[in-house]
Design brief:
4 helices, two-stranded antiparallel ribbon, alpha+beta, single chain
């Protein structure tokens, strides 16, 4: 009995290129700057910093983790709403980026 050699297929190892629209540096509004800072940063970084703020201040609803409770800094960003879902959050953020 001869041992059969297994052929190994080589996979193309090309890095995924980020979408230019996501990587474009945007300037936050004065209300959003209180949470994420005044420096122009990409939309992805804005969302990351916002989540860091939410976790640091314990603003995720304890019963329904998909909901975010707004504090004094987030209320103007969320159009005065006391609570928004994590999916609505990006809609409100986009209004504060230019």
């Amino acid at each position: 009995m001869a041992k059969a050699k297994k052929k190994t297929a080589k996979k193309k190892t090309s890095k995924r290129k980020p979408n230019a629209a996501f990587m474009k540096a945007l300037t936050p509004s004065s209300q959003l700057a209180e949470v994420v800072g005044t420096k122009a940063i990409p939309r992805t970084e804005v969302v990351k910093k916002l989540w860091q703020y939410i976790r640091k201040h314990g603003l995720q609803d304890s019963k329904n983790r998909r909901m975010i409770n707004a504090d004094a800094n987030l209320k103007p960003i969320f159009s005065g709403k006391k609570q928004v879902s994590m999916f609505e959050m990006t809609k409100y953020i986009s209004k504060h980026l230019s």
